Amino acid sequence: MAAGRQWGVTASDRPTYSIGAVSRMLGMPPATLRAWEDRYRVVVPDRGDGTHRLYSRNQVEQPRYIKKQIDAGMSAADAHRLLEDEIGSQRWSGGPAGGERGPLVLIAERDQYAAELAEYFLHTEGYDVCVALDARRARELFDERSPAVVLVDLLISGGAGFRLCREFSASGAVHLLAVSALESANEAVSAGASAFLQKPLEPLELVAVVRDLLGTSAVAHPAAGGTPPG
Asked: What range defines the domain where residue 56 resides?
């Protein structure tokens, strides 16, 4: 079986996620990922320094695809052969979202690891995502990209998140989701945030809140004849 392939370097192909992060994303032990890599040589992460494995976004979606086939009753060997055929015939799209991306979410987050996880889960759900790791870059991306939603870590750049919320909310054209390890819901709303989540973020809750803010969930769109939430 052929070794893992290298494609043109795009954001989806860039080595980004550690094996521990991938393990948490997929709910699979790292030992399984290592065993599949050693045995089948289809999903082969980057090891530029010879030690740590780093997976691209595409390479996260590939073991997810394999796991789905195994859960449906296929053997691991057959699932890897099927994935290799998909890649070889260029039917593999690189992930479940494929095609045109959804609304843009700007993540203004001081913690790169937390930013990468939030980016991954939102991107997997079909959203376009850009990331800023300091307040200055967040302002630049806000002006350049006009995001639909901004996730703001209130402690970014030494607590500049409150100021960012006030500045961004003044535009009147964006939904603000404030996050913090501290209980700061009242302060966040006072600064202009539409919603607040306390860290560490739970991925499903994060995605659900973004959907609610954009009006794409059952909470924002109650069934016909129902009573909107008060």
From this structure: 17-88
